[in-house]
Amino acid sequence: MEIQVGQFFDSFKDFKDLINQRESEINEKLVIGKSSHSVQQANSRLKGKFRYKDDLVYTNVTFRCVHEGNFISSGNAKQSTSLRNGCPVLVKLRADKVVNKLQVASVNLQHNHAMPDKKDGVYVSDRKLNTAEENDVTRLIDLGAPVRKIQAHISSSYALAACIPEYDLRQVT
């Protein structure tokens, strides 16, 4: 489903459901930006009878692609990686006082990068194991199986990222 300027949402949950649907369809990862203001904050400053609905959660909120911003290395220490590549995707919502709903104030959904496939395991959430998979990995770890063998087993059995990092496996136990 497309997000359009002027579109209204009865609650933050309704908007978040739409975002989650987009994420599952195209493997898009949007995160809440730093400049958001909560309904609780706004209601504490308001005088008079009007109050924002608690279901709105935010009076102003910005969602950005995880690839937004530019990575700046902090010296010549260990080589580090970053998802940041200056992606301009952004969705701004604001609470409308007249109808007491969240409204899309601005939107740009044009990514400047290819969307990674879930099986590539670029995002941590794509490498997350469900309960059954976690139990299987725990059993293999308890049996003393080498990490490479566990990674190969996960890749072939569950069609997850071909190379789940060792530190992700350590979080299982």
Characterize the structure shown:
The protein has 173 residues and is of the alpha+beta class. The chain folds into two domains: 8-115, no CATH class; 120-170. It contains five helices and six strands, in the order E-H-E-E-H-E-E-E-H-H-H. Strands 1, 2, 3, 4, 5 and 6 form a six-stranded antiparallel beta sheet that branches. The chain is elongated, with a radius of gyration of 21 Å. The model has no long low-confidence stretch (mean pLDDT 79).
Topology diagram in text:
Elements: E1 8-9, H1 12-26, E2 30-32, E3 37-38, H2 39-45, E4 58-65, E5 90-96, E6 101-108, H3 131-142, H4 147-158, H5 166-170
Antiparallel strand pairs: 1-6, 2-4, 3-4, 4-5, 5-6
Helix content: 25-40%
Over the alpha carbons, how many angstroms does the gyration radius reach?
21 Å
| Beta-strand percentage range | 15-25%
Q: What general outline do the C-alpha atoms trace? A: elongated
Please provide a brief summary of the model.
It comes from Elysia marginata. Helices cover 29% and strands 17% of the residues.
Question: What are the main properties of this structure?
Answer:
single chain, 173 residues, alpha+beta, 2 domains, 5 helices
